[in-house]
Write a structure and sequence with these properties.
By secondary structure, this protein is α+β, with helices and mostly antiparallel strands. It is built from seven helices and four strands; from the N terminus they run H-H-H-H-H-E-E-H-E-E-H.
């Protein structure tokens, strides 16, 4: 079985388990004799296990199997390193969700460890054209050359972007434009309140290299 087939198999199984768990919970809500706590825990566990596979599928669509897998494993490792051990919140639900996320990421890393991806064609990047303005290229260089984080909640004025270099700023509308066009992407390993890292996509790097 190739790495691509292995990934497809685990993704299908994980998403199927999550769908089944949600369906059982929905049916249980209509039956007063059913123990809902068990069903809710099953949903948390199944959703947490499916989450990294679902994100991997999206990365593969954009970057191909090799790079997509590498990025998703890197994100999973980063979250686990920041995890800090078992949940210690006063909320049992928060603890359960956190522990389920940990277990889901750990299982994902176990299943994908040692997968050897054969050489494959990479997604064809969009060519740099005259439609890319100097301002847009400037924004791409900021993302490439500094650590850019997206912070806050999206409101009328969009997200807020911060950089690691004093005096260098990335305008909200420009940052949203670059992400919206697929030239940059936002990592989801950290909550927005802590800042989510913004990096260039294959297309964004191609534009600057052109």
């Amino acid at each position: 079985m190739t790495a691509t087939e292995t990934i497809a198999m685990h993704t299908t199984l994980a998403l199927g388990k999550a769908a089944t768990a949600r369906q059982r919970l929905t049916e249980g809500l209509a039956n007063r004799s059913v123990h809902l706590t068990t069903l809710m825990e099953a949903v948390l566990t199944a959703e947490a296990e499916a989450a990294p596979w679902e994100r991997l599928a999206k990365r593969i669509e954009r970057h191909g199997v090799r790079e997509g897998l590498a990025r998703q494993r890197e994100e999973a490792l980063e979250v686990l390193l920041q995890y800090g051990g078992p949940g210690v919140s006063t909320s049992l639900v928060v603890n359960a969700a956190r522990n389920a996320e940990y277990d889901g990421l750990r299982r994902f890393l176990t299943h994908t460890e040692g997968l050897e991806v054969q050489d494959e064609p990479t997604p064809e990047p969009a060519p740099a054209t005259a439609e890319v303005t100097e301002l847009e290229e400037h924004g791409l260089r900021i993302i490439r050359d500094t650590f850019v984080d997206r912070i806050g909640h999206k409101g009328r004025d969009g997200w807020r972007y911060s950089t690691s270099v004093q005096g260098v700023t990335l305008d909200t509308s420009l940052g949203d434009l670059l992400v919206g066009r697929g030239w940059a992407e936002v990592g989801e390993s950290r909550p927005l309140a802590d800042g989510q890292r913004v990096t260039l996509t294959v297309t964004g790097r191609h534009i600057l290299a052109g």
